[in-house]
């Protein structure tokens, strides 16, 4: 059978294939390559074979190499071998994690991130390490209102141990409501990050139910020898279902809240995820409404108040009255 000869068009597309891979920060899927070249995946495979038949890498291996990630075949050029180990998007991803989790400086998590960073960057040649010196200017997080957990490193380390090894914990906790210190034996289920603050969702044996504990209020942790079985039916999403944030109100009946906002807030509010049930509707006068279904307003009312005269509670009346009361109290301060 006579072998199909490459055409001028094929040569151009193969050159474009090399260009696509050379510009990529990570291995590219066959489907993406086929779409950009406007060819079938089968034709793309034929191009790869033609390139490897005619071009060799310095180690005399294949010029265009293949890996499989998540069940998908991805391609990369041999001189991009480094992108599979410790450069480009992987290093940037670790650095971004370091920046975003800066409030965990001085904790066991921060130390682990530093070890991963050192491992990744340690594989780079000196010429590439120079670029790392500029990362603190290229990627930045304001850290506005950022907490610090450095003094609670021991607490966090023990919580993580109980969480990973499924060990019961005894915690010394200060109640938000009563400000009284209590001791609880808990089964740690989920370490939750909410607004740069850490919380622990756990089954509290004394209450016989799942509760949310702020890490700020946990004074001491003892890892017990006794383990627990992680419940198969447990879902952290359901624990905070109905709350605007994370503070749940077990057994509370859900209600619909409707808030009117002025037009300038449209982009800010509609491009963010505030609650699973959120729905936005534009009004004829240029303003718009936000509708959510809640069971708890503990975090919702302060959230509304931050918008001042730009927001108006339409319903329910009970929520409208609470917000009006808070605004009246604030006015009395002035």
**How many separate domains make up the residues?**
4
Strand content: 15-25%
How far apart are the first and last residues' alpha carbons, in Å? 92 Å
Helicity, in percent?
25-40%
Residue-averaged pLDDT, rounded? 85
- Give, in order, the helices and strands: HEHHEEHHHHHEEEEEHEHEEHEH
Identify low-pLDDT runs: none
What does this structure look like?
The chain has twelve helices and twelve strands. It is extended. The chain has four domains: 8-81, Arc Repressor Mutant, subunit A, CATH 1.10.10.10; 88-138; 169-233, SH3 type barrels (Roll); 255-332. Helix content is 36%, strand content 25%. With 334 residues, it is an alpha+beta fold. 17% of the residues are buried. A five-stranded antiparallel beta sheet has the order 7-6-5-4-8, covered by helices on one side. It has a four-stranded antiparallel beta sheet with strand order 10-11-9-12, with helices on one face.
